[in-house]
Amino acid sequence: MIKTEDSIVHSVALEFTATPGPRFEAQGPWSGEEFRKRLLEPWFLDASSRGIKLVIDLDGGYGYAPSFLEEAFGGLARDCGVDKVLRTVAFKSDEEPLLCDRVAKYIRESAAMTA
Amino acid sequence: MSGVVRWEISLGEIVLSLSTVGAAWYVGSALKRKQDRDMAVRDLVRFFCRESLQLLAALSDTFSAEFTRMNGGLDAAGVNNIKLALQRLSNSLHTINVSIGRGGIKESKALAEPGGSLKTLLDANEYLRIIILDPLADQTSRHQVNARRVEGAIRSTREAIVSLELGIVSRLE
């Protein structure tokens, strides 16, 4: 975790796992659901209550399954609101920059999944 | 008297002529610079389209080889090889995306819009990742990855790359 005055950076690989798993906890270890419940939601609530940016570092995680990312970040948006999540959360990936666009897309499209 | 032709040119006319020639030269060179710049961006996009096609072929080869080696299943090394091939393809497509977005060629917006060939390509790649990575992550179905479905998705992605390149080429004519 790296803290600055206006942002806090959390790493999925360093603080959760470098081998992310499936969508749901019932499907196997290191799931997107587990990540969201155990880490992402507390990180998000902490950052939004303090009015700072939450930066999620995706580097180091090897081969994120799309369902993992959708469940974690799309799920967060379904729980907390798309606009609020997009305003608060930013993503970083030097290893695979297209991942950041994909995660933002999952957040934007999360409302459609509940409709 | 033999005919004598007298030319009289005023200073104003000289200035007007020079400024017209100067303006024409400036506009012409600006257009040429813009054309050269657009051509360079299109060449760059085409280069990365070729690279993406090669990486897609490499992904197809890796996928087939790993499945053959493990007789339809996958071990950790095989999973890593496939993920690495997918990452390389993803990064090449990202470079195409960035080149079109930042290159500022006039068709950038149309390509990136829904139905545009860049958007179609990124969606095809997304589908490819879903049908490869999701079953790998879900260990209960690791050995049930449908190789024929993956080959179909690779073909769709290849066609999307070719469509994008053809779109760029047709605008050069």
Give your account of this protein's structure.
The complex is a heterodimer of chains A (115) and B (173). By secondary structure, chain A is of the alpha/beta class. Chain A has one domain (2-114). Helices cover 54% and strands 14% of the residues of chain A. Chain A has five helices and four strands. Chain A has helices at 12-15, 32-50, 66-80, 82-88, 98-114, and strands at residues 2-3, 7-11, 53-57, 89-92. A four-stranded mixed β-sheet of chain A has the order 1-2-3-4. In chain A, a hairpin with a 3-residue loop joins strand 1 and strand 2. The longest helix of chain A is centred in the middle third of the chain and has 19 residues, at 32-50. Chain B starts with 10 loop residues before the first helix and ends with a helix. With 173 residues, chain B is mainly α. In chain B, helix 4 (117-137) packs antiparallel against helix 5. Chain B has one domain (41-170): Four Helix Bundle (Hemerythrin (Met), subunit A). Chain B is built from five helices and no strands.
Sum this structure up briefly.
By secondary structure, chain A is an alpha/beta fold. Chain A is built from 5 helices and 4 strands.
**CATH class identity of chain B:** Mainly Alpha
N/C terminus separation of chain B: 60 Å
Order of helices and strands of chain A: EEHHEHHEH
The global form of chain B is: rod-shaped
Indicate the overall shape of chain A. globular
- In N-to-C order, the SSE pattern of chain B is HHHHH
* Helix vs. strand class of chain B: mainly alpha
Radius of gyration of chain A: 13 Å
If you average the pLDDT of chain B, what whole number results? 84
**Can you give the helix content of chain A as a percent range?**
40-55%
Low-confidence stretches of chain A: none
Percent strand of chain B: under 5%
Q: What portion of residues of chain B is helical? A: over 70%
Query: What is the oligomeric state here?
Result: heterodimer
Supply the CATH architecture of chain B. Answer: Up-down Bundle
